[in-house]
User: What shape does this take?
Amino acid sequence: MRIALYNHTSEVSGAEINLLLTAAYMPQTSFVLYAPEGELLERARSQGMETIALPGYSAKLSMNPIRLLKGAAGMALAGWRFASMVKTAKPDAIHANSVRAGIMASMFRWYHQIPLAWHLHDMPPRGIIGRLIRTLAAGTTQALIAISQPVLEGMKSRTLENRLHLVHNGAILRDQDELARRYSKKEIRGELQTPMESSVLVIVGQITPWKRQEDAIHALNALLQEERDLYLWIVGEPKFRMENEIYLEQLKLLVSILHMEDRVRFTGFREDIDEICNAADMLLLCSENEPFGRVIIEAMAKGTPVVATDGGGVSDIIKHGVSGLLYPAKDVEALAASIGSVLDDRKLRTSLSIHGRQRIEDFFSIEGAAEKLERVYAGIAGTHQRTGVNAKPVERARGIAK
Assistant: This one.
């Protein structure tokens, strides 16, 4: 099969990383990536993927009629350019890597007439915007691929139910190498000026208010009051919106107010997440309503214990008390207590590490994710000019427990 991948932005975040990683594990499928010139295309070219640069357009959802019309016009122009290109290329199917990319690809589905799948990486909007998106999807798509059960539930409707597919993101599982782990710990801790004997918490993700990095800072402060030897690494950078830049400055101010500059490290964006997980003692995820949490499966694959919020798609991944610990979002006291319980109980740490890695091996391997995506592609590739017809959806993986 030949699949056209469409991404509306050149910025690289979790959805784009997942796209390139999963594509690399489908050797029987050829891909061509359509996206604006920038970091995403550079990464794709470096792994040998065929790419085509095209102008993009990024519009924010708005209830302001003028902004809404302006945004719609810009998206329509970008969608037309893409439709013109794929009509000539004639791939077997289109994989739109977000709802926004899906909307652009859907606008001229009547023109290019190529089977279309949207990959849903975020919680679908509610209200009238959500209804409009579901209506457009119902008339133009052959498949909707959700990264977690809550994301899937957010797109459910009578007309879409039979074309919804649950395909969790996958992680790479490598043999555990204790020597490599120790080397990563020494190198990363040396770089980040963190003592080898100290315990390290790490939170990884885009710097943005809904990721709630401030909760990790407050939990650290509470634990330091107990005279614990702890450090916090905040890995990530603000992207897409000015409010995220402001939030980063607020986080740094909070650290200063709490007099914890010597205990918190802002690392910026890092490519070496595996090594970061090896060097840390625990991964935290503090997000509200996280759609999935790719970094969780990356940490669990390395055997790093995870403490995460219990909302969104996280509960698809973690079985509380077995493969990780869950706590209610915004509850800093519960977060601090969970961290303390893992730090104080060596048997629990070992159990979470072993069972966390086993859960990834059983249900969240990159090979499994790639196989499911190929089944979706195969199911829609023969639906040319038959909008709304779809193969049997990918079933929810057995054993995924709430």
